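My convention is simple: the sequence line spells out the residues, with the fold written below as integer tokens. I include a record here:
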Amino acid sequence: MSWEERVKKVVPYVPGDQPKFKDMVKLNTNECPYPPAPGVERMLKEMSYEDFRLYPAPGADDLVESLADYYKVKPSQVFVGVGSDDVIAMAFLTFFSSGEKIFFPDITYSFYPVWAQVYGIPYETKALDKDFHIKASDYTYANGGVIFPNPNAPTGLLEPLSVVEEIIRVNKDSVVIVDEAYIDFADEGSSALPLIDRYENLLVVRTFSKSRAMAGMRIGYAIGNERLIKYLNDVKFSVNSYTMNRPSLLLGVEAVKDDAYFKETLSKIRATRERMKQELVQIGFSFPDAQSNFIFATHRSLPASEIYGALKEKHIFVRYFNTPGIDNYLRITVGTEDEADILIDALKEILKERNSL
């Protein structure tokens, strides 16, 4: 057997394009259109570059304590990692090791099957209903764990907390991971965080990449009961004890401190989202009710692939998934008001040219 035959081969996750045109409108990777909190900039200027010769705190103590204080939990209930992708990958490695199939939706974050393949975890996808909603009854069978985003990606749909709780309740012998990357853009009271003291099998995962405008710093975290977090840290320290770099830890604390700025940013994005919904409907688009910082839209007459290509020619980038079941949808990130204007004007021009408006 050759060395190459011994290599693990997987189909990797494909992230959104990162184009570099100066005049582009980038609405394809769900980044925040506004800068991080002002305190982040101040700390960036105050950091001592000489300290970069030193290892960061392996327990990320200051950041953990800031998050614990913000969410009114114990520091021992918080785990941090290099973006929520790192946190979820660690959770797969830690909690999905029974050899039984894990469950997640068939239309969801496309990294889930990649991690399952990399770690040799069997899995079974559960079909969403015709309106793209999760069916809680599909998750009542024996399994090795459950994971789903809420709001879901790429649909942007939010499941009611009652549905989320039902899935957690019926799976008391498995760890249920609720991926809340987009929850800050959803209606108040929709997070599963209040359930963590009631269900010891629940792990809630979040990120700084979307609502806190720090995708470039790679900060993610999980909140759950103390035993879950201990097991996560045990695996983390067995793989790499210094996962978070010093700038991320310092700047992450500053991002958490400024709650007023955080809420102001969320308010602006929600307002632009609702305006975009109205204008997209007027030019023939329909979509699930987005509770995220993106809209998952399809046009009544023009194929999504054609719209995607035409926008790309104008240096306006949205996300297109050439995947059965969603191959006639575009995932459009909510940008600034000016970016929304440019997008809507471009769509009107494209549709008029093709006589679809």
Notes: The radius of gyration is 21 Å. The chain has a mean pLDDT of 95. The chain is about 35% helix and 15% strand. Residues 259-282 form the longest helix (24 residues).
